[in-house]
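Its record is quoted verbatim for completeness.
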Amino acid sequence: MSISYNGLWKLLIDRNMLKKDLASKLNISSATMAKMGKGENVSMDVIQRICEYMDCNIGDIMSFEKDNKEKVD
């Protein structure tokens, strides 16, 4: 499974915010923002700060997507 942060990117667009604005306001490093852009894991602390700032739930900003290569028994 992979992580998708598409919900977060959509929320930012809806609120006329840039990724760098969010990173600056919440003191999120550029490395962490890059990880999110690549669909990699980030700490729950970062996710919590984003949810609190955006006034949303975790499912609003991220989701898990099945990889096509993954076999299900």
Notes: The mean pLDDT is 92. The domain at 2-64 is CATH 1.10.260.40 (434 Repressor (Amino-terminal Domain)).
